[in-house]
Amino acid sequence: MFNSVVKNVRRLNEDKTVNIGIANGCFAAITTASIQGEKEWDAHGHIVLPPFVEMHTHLDTTLTIGNQVNNKTGTLFEAISIWHERKQYLSEEDVINRATKALHMLMEHGVLYVRAAVDISDPHLTALKALLEVRKRMAEVLELQIIAFPQDGLMSCEENQARLIEAVEMGADAVSAVPHLERTREQGIASLEYCFSIAKQYDKFVHVFCDEIDDDQSRFLEVVADLTIKNNMEGSVTASHAIALAYYNEPYAQKVIQLVKQAELTIVACPLINSVVQGRLDRFPKGRGITRIKDLYTAGVNVCIAHDDIRTPFYPFGSGNILQAAHMGLHLAHMTGADDLHAIFQMISHHGAQSFGLEENYGIEIGKPANFITIPGKDMSDIITNQPKCSFIFRNGNLIASTEPEKTQWHTVSTNNKVSGAST
Question: Which GO terms describe its molecular function (predicted)?
Answer without folding.
Answer: deaminase activity; hydrolase activity, acting on carbon-nitrogen (but not peptide) bonds, in cyclic amidines; metal ion binding
